[in-house]
Amino acid sequence: MRPYETDPARIYAQSFATVRAEARLDRFPEDLRPMVIRLIHACGMVEIADRLAFSAGAMATGRAALAAGAPVLCDCEMVAAGIIRRHLPDTEVLVTLNDAAVPEMAHDLGTTRSAAAVDLWREKIKGAVVAVGNAPTALFHLLERLDAGWPKPALILGFPVGFVGAAESKAELAGDPRGCDFVALRGRKGGSAMASAAVNALANGISEEKA
Amino acid sequence: MRPYETDPARIYAQSFATVRAEARLDRFPEDLRPMVIRLIHACGMVEIADRLAFSAGAMATGRAALAAGAPVLCDCEMVAAGIIRRHLPDTEVLVTLNDAAVPEMAHDLGTTRSAAAVDLWREKIKGAVVAVGNAPTALFHLLERLDAGWPKPALILGFPVGFVGAAESKAELAGDPRGCDFVALRGRKGGSAMASAAVNALANGISEEKA
Lengths: 211, 211
Known about the structure:
The structure is a homodimer.
Chain A: H1 8-22, H2 33-43, E1 52-54, H3 58-67, E2 72-74, H4 77-81, E3 93-95, H5 102-109, H6 113-119, E4 129-132, H7 136-147, E5 155-158, H8 166-175, E6 181-185, H9 192-204
Parallel strand pairs in A: 2-3, 2-4, 4-5, 5-6
Antiparallel strand pairs in A: 1-6
Helix pairs in contact in A: 1-2, 2-9, 5-6, 6-7, 7-8
């Protein structure tokens, strides 16, 4: 059995040092870099730094929203499960995907359950932080609702993953963020761990790095 | 707004068709290919097919374990959250990471909480399916316990992610799986979505593909 590092503080420090050494971070606003580092840390891929799209105010807007008590709206349970709740003890983290009404809504709308579940965000969307870590159709559907006049969320964290619609939905967001702040990973890559990491970065930056 | 696919069956079919077109699957045993496809689908990266390590009996052993009522032991809540429970309605899915005893155990052992939490698997480990989707130290610690004489799990799904210990812990598993069946993604990449996908593949293959 080979030796391995067991000290949490040294693991974090070494991880973040590797990210800083390998990833190009200088194109990001200073306040967004902790999120970029956390995103890379969550997936083990420094190269995602080169494909992140973002608005300049994303971090400040997201932090202000959470500080003001805004909810976090997630497209799936995995995103919610990855949010470190001790950093957001009073924040509502909402997942509507498994609401009993969703299958029928999806059928009636002719879309996926993930997209239909977005309609249940209507009363919470204004000023919210949206974290999409799985379903391209959830992000597309949200953008359609915004085009139809919904109130705007503060920040959209766009990390749907996969081969059908993921790259396209994030390109649609990055090309026209509908007046919202946003961070999104272009292309097929993404996932719930990245979406959670983005929320965690809003909540706490990289405080573990200093542990 | 660009048009996008909203039909779940077509999304699945198109996704799996893309995976089959782009990924090299022929080196895998026939019964393992549905898992490989699901793993790729979970992360949007066909290239992971080239870095998967596995034992020839992994799929049959894992399916038999679940069919016999074995529990699934996960290193974090996100892995558990990604397991499709309707395919495993009677299976115990256990996460010990947030057990109240773990912080003190970690302190006493001089290791991470993720590693210490593995010690709470002791009574469940024999014949179990282990799904590691986050912490390299959890996988290392399990291998140490097996070296020390613990009963063996049936199958180890090794998908810890990151820059410190992830590649090393999976190399240790693949180099000497301690008599267990295993599937692991070599290198830094991994994550809870892949670990969940591997469990879901055991439970249901790729039935959605035929939906």
